[in-house]
Amino acid sequence: MKFTASQIAGILEGEVQGDPEITVHTLAKIEEGKAGSLTFLANPKYTPHLYTTEASITIVNKDFSPEKEFTTTLIKVEDAYQSFTKLLTYYDQVKNDKSGIEQPVYVDESSSYGENVYLGAFTYIGKNVTIGKNAKIYPNVYISDNVTIGDNVSLFSGAKICSDSIIGNNCVIHTGVIIGSDGFGFSPNTDGTFTKIPQIGNVILEDNVDVGAGTTIDRATMGSTIIKKGVKLDNQIQIAHNVEIGENTVIAAQTGIAGSTKIGKNCMIGGQVGIVGHISIGDNVRIQAQSGIGKNIKDNEVLQGSPAMNYGDFNKSYVHFKNLPKIVKGINNIEKKFDGK
Length: 341
Fold this sequence. Notes:
The chain is of the alpha/beta class. 17% of the residues lie in helices and 30% in strands. GO terms for molecular function: N-acyltransferase activity; UDP-3-O-[(3R)-3-hydroxyacyl]-glucosamine N-acyltransferase activity.
């Protein structure tokens, strides 16, 4: 699909400087731009690439003033980064725009779906499932019984939605995600064996939640595991039974959250963080990558380390960690001098 500079400027409410009829059909980084591609310049350190890029169109900020000649057509906007993000979103929607019902697909007669739904081949939809309008269910998706899925939801190939799960509007569930698998619940017996505790709860995803590829969200033992609106989860995250994650919290890959832990809103959690069960983490908390969280955390804390400590204290202590061999050697030398006396 091709677009002219004037068409793109119309979408972005921008101003064309150059050829308004030049066309593009792909997107590129500014240093890799070729004829027929569209790129953007937002970070000043990439400005030299503007004068050498072969991209047909470049989106720039309105206040950009070139210092030498260039060949690319400019589209001047209020915020180049935000405008390019808007185009990426539009491009992604066009690329993944599918409609209709492919075959073979199984939909139980007790289930229903709204208008403009796409069901990819080999999709299985169990009993008493409700799917909203404009949903896109890609091939090889499994949806078990009594599941509710809202409007404008995308379930990518290989996703598994287990029974009784509830997924809100505008959610994106990526490849290989499992929502509603059994929580890890076992009762120890006197003979050293374990008895499985039935997990009879469910998982609730509120609106505008994104779940990255390979992430698993376990159903509650009783009640619900709850992912609140606006939460963004990276790939390969483990969320255990009865966990609750607050609004607009972002969690990076390979983080593990044990059962019944409550995480507040607007938190940012780095990759490979381990969080024990049955604790509470406040709002606006920042946890650096590979930290270990073993106790309750108050609002607005910034943490690093394992076990995690205050971020500033960690950095100060790290200076001493690095110098520990020298410090020990110095102490030993002092002890030797005193022993000599």
